[in-house]
Write a structure and sequence with these properties.
CATH class: Alpha Beta
CATH superfamily: ph1033 like domains
Strand order of the largest sheet: 2-5-4-3-1-6
Number of strands: 6
Order of helices and strands: EHEHEEEHEH
Distance between the termini: 32 Å
Pfam families: EVE
Shape: globular
CATH architecture: Roll
Radius of gyration: 15 Å
Strand content: 25-35%
Organism: Candidatus Berkiella cookevillensis
Keywords: Phosphoprotein
InterPro entries: 5hmC_binding (IPR052181), EVE_domain (IPR002740), PUA-like_sf (IPR015947), THYN1-like_EVE (IPR047197)
Protein name: EVE domain protein
DNA sequence: GCCAACGTTGGC
DNA sequence: GCCAACGTTGGC
C-alpha cells in the first residue's frame, strides 16, 4: 500500500499540537470534520500509516507545526450523535452515519512553525490549495514532492 | 474585528 | 433545479 500525505487543520484554541502532545499516548480522534469533501478524503483515501502535517489555523501565526501518523482509518464520528456536542448533527444517525473521523498519533512536533507566509513564498508550493486564496478545506492531500519540499524548509 | 470566499439551506 | 440568503472559515 502506497503511503499518502495529508494536511489537517485545527484551530489551536480548540485543539493544538500541544494538546495532542500532552495526551498519554499522544493519540486522539480527529472529530468534527463537517465538510463533505474533507470527509471523503478521510473516509475513502486515508489509510493507517499515512502521514499528515498538523496545521494551526485561525491564529496568530497560521502554519504547519508538526507531523502526525494515521493510526486508525475512518469510523463514524459519534460526536455527531451527541446533542451536547458542538459537532452535533441531527441528520446523522447510528444506522446512517454522515460524518467520520480517524485517529492520529503525534510523530513529531517542529521546533518552529512553518508559517503560511513562508509556505506562500516557496514557489515550489504554489500549486498547493492551502496557499491559494479562499481555500477552506480542513483536510487536504499533499503530494510526495510537496511533502519533501516542506520538510526541507525545516532545516533552514 | 473585518470581510472575502465558500458551502449549505430552503423557498419557489 | 435555481439561486438568494445565510452561516462558517480563516487570513489579515
Amino acid at each position: 500500500m502506497q503511503q499518502k500525505f495529508w494536511l489537517m487543520k485545527s484551530e489551536p484554541s480548540t485543539f493544538s499540537i500541544d494538546h495532542l502532545a500532552a495526551l498519554p499516548h499522544q493519540t486522539e480522534h480527529w472529530e468534527g470534520v463537517r465538510n463533505y469533501q474533507a470527509r471523503n478524503f478521510m473516509r475513502d483515501e486515508m489509510k493507517v500509516g499515512d502521514e499528515a502535517f498538523f496545521y494551526h489555523s485561525n491564529c496568530d501565526t497560521p502554519g504547519i507545526v508538526g507531523i502526525v501518523t494515521i493510526v486508525k482509518s475512518a469510523y463514524p464520528d459519534h460526536f455527531a450523535l451527541k446533542k451536547s456536542s458542538p459537532y452535533y448533527d441531527p441528520k446523522s444517525t447510528t444506522e446512517n452515519p454522515r460524518w467520520y473521523m480517524v485517529d492520529v498519533k503525534l510523530k513529531q512536533k517542529f521546533d518552529t512553525v512553518i508559517s503560511l507566509r513562508t509556505l506562500k513564498e516557496n514557489t515550489a508550493l504554489a500549486k498547493m490549495p492551502l496557499v491559494q486564496k479562499g481555500n477552506r478545506l480542513s483536510i487536504l492531500p499533499v503530494t510526495a514532492n510537496e511533502w519533501r519540499t516542506i520538510l526541507k524548509m525545516l532545516k533552514k
